[in-house]
Amino acid sequence: MLNKFRTERFSWILLIGIIMLLFEMSFYDGGVVFFLLITFGCIYFGRKRLPRTSGKLLFWFGVISLSLTILNTMAFKFFLLALLVMVILRFADSKKNPSKVEPQIKQTFHEGGEPVYIKRATLQNVWFGRLQTPEHVYEWNDINIQGGIGDTVIDLGNTVLPKGTSVVSVRHILGNIVILVPYDIEVSIHHNGLAGAITIFDRIEPKSFNQSVYYQTSEFDQAPQKVKVITSLAVGDLEVKRV
C-alpha cells in the first residue's frame, strides 16, 4: 500500500510537471521554439560529424544550449522542489518508523559437499531512511551496507557474536552512525569522514573535517572474540559506545 501511494505521488508530480512545461511553452514566442529546434539540429548533425572538430563544436553547443534552456524552465524548478520535499518527507518518516530486518534462512542445497545456507543479510542497502538492527535477540551475520540519507543504528548487544573476528562495514552519505558494543567485546574502528563529530567511548572529537581515524582497544589482538568496524561517512557523526 505504501509503495502504491509513493508511485501515485510520483505520477502526479510528473503529470503536473508536464502540464507546467506545456503551459509555459504556450507563452513563449516562436523564437524560443525555433531556438530549441536549432539546438536539436546542432546535436543531431554534430553527432553525425564526430569526431571532426566541426562535429564536436556543433554537438556540444547544442547540448549546452539545450541544458541551459531546460534549467531555466519553471517545470524543472518544480521538479527540483518536489524532489526536495519528497526527500524531507522520507527522512522524517524514517525517523518515526525505522526499518528493522530480521535475518531469515531462505534455502539449503548441496553441491557434492556440505550444505550451503543462503541467508538474508541482517540489514539491506537503502537510499533514504533509518536503518536499525532488531530490538530483540537476532542471529548474527557480518554487516556490509551502504546508504544515502538517514541514520544507522547497530546494536551488538542483542546478538551472540561468534569466536574470531566479526565485521561491521558501513558506508554512508548523510546521517549519523551509532554502534553499540558490549563491554566484554574488544573492538577496532577505522573511520573516514568528510565532516562531522567522532565519539569513540570516552574519546570525543567535536569537529572533524576530512579525517581518517583508527582506534583499537588494548586487548584486541589477543581477544578470541572481537569486532572490526569500518565506517565511511560524508556528512554526519559517528558514535561508538558500550552497552
UniProtKB/TrEMBL annotation:
Keyword Nucleus tagged: no
Segment forming the signal sequence: none
Keyword Transmembrane in annotation: yes
GO CC term, one of those recorded: membrane
Keywords: Membrane, Transmembrane, Transmembrane helix
Transmembrane segments annotated in the record for this chain: 12-45, 57-89
Taxonomy, superkingdom: Bacteria
Entries under InterPro entries matching the protein: Cell_wall_LiaF (IPR016975), LiaF-like_C (IPR024425), LiaF_C (IPR047793)
A Pfam family recorded for this sequence: LiaF-like_C
Cell wall-active antibiotics response LiaF-like C-terminal domain boundaries: 127-240
NCBIfam families: LiaF_C_term
Protein name in UniProt: Cell wall-active antibiotics response protein
UniProt lineage: Bacteria, Bacillati, Bacillota, Bacilli, Bacillales
